[in-house]
Amino acid sequence: MSLTAETLDPVAADAAFSGVVTVHTGDERTFTRAYGFAHRALQVANTPETRFGIASGGKTFTALAVLRLVDDGVLRLDDPVRGVLGDDLPLIDDAVTVEHLLAHTSGIGDYLDESADWQADDYVLTRPVHELDRTEAFLPMLDGHPQSFPPGERFSYCNGGYVVLALVAERASGQGYHDLVEQLVCAPAGLTRTGFPRLDALPGDVALGYLDADGDRCNVLHLPVRATGDGGIVTSADDLHTFWLALTAGRIVPPELVAEMTRPRHDVPDEGMRYGLGLWLHASGPQLVLEGYDAGASFRSTHDPRTGTTVSVLGNTSEGAWPVIGAVAHVVD
């Protein structure tokens, strides 16, 4: 069944959705709808070219930067991260490896525990947000969380683990995290509109992230001013499709590492999906998924490598995208 404006518009209206919905197949964008405002106070409408924060969708970019370092011989999947961390974060088990962190099986205590009673508009950061502009600045928030279970025992989604991955990548390579992602992931993929602007200095084509369905309160006090490995990248619908085509063609990491990323490792019933290595996977099919949720961001992009079809929902409110995501799922299911 195809997607039409007549079927989608009522769902978007009921959800007070603000954002963009696109379908791409091959080299063509075959469906586009834009709703709501990128800047409510100035009545600047969202357009198909608007860029959005994708929250935890950025974890896959972190994973790919790390896997590029693995491919280059700078890191190995079975490297214990203690050798890079040194005396920092002493509560992380010495047996935790790069692969454990990528697969969410490290068992390290999380600075942002999503299994707790957490709401996207809570003030969860324990450091002033303006200080959180580089990975090393996150160390005080990562410290002091006891190990939850032995490394490799089970899957447990961990935001802090991806900040640790960013730190490991920086120290192993001698380059900053943002530069690594831009050079090792965005450049070879041909992503021209993806990057890490400061939250307090967003370019005009980036949507503000709103806490609620109405009102002008945005997320600037809820998120790091320039986030790191667990989220914080902004992108556009067209760049997302470009990303998927580059990934599946082996232009970011070689095919053998793409196969590692897309090999199902864990069923995650609470999410209705499986997990690979830095990447969500459809519960039963070959579709690949990026997903993100945070203050002022709700997002999913699903790619079917069999048909080259991508369906993306990029929202700039905390909750509004989820009904829309449900309404478009059939396009790639």
From TrEMBL:
Residues 9-320 form the Beta-lactamase-related domain. GO terms for cellular component: membrane. The keyword Oxidoreductase does not apply. It comes from the Bacteria. It is found in: Membrane. Its main location: membrane. The keyword Transmembrane helix does not apply. Keywords: Membrane. Pfam families: Beta-lactamase. This is Beta-lactamase. It comes from Beutenbergia cavernae (strain ATCC BAA-8 / DSM 12333 / CCUG 43141 / JCM 11478 / NBRC 16432 / NCIMB 13614 / HKI 0122). The lineage of its organism: Bacteria, Bacillati, Actinomycetota, Actinomycetes, Micrococcales.
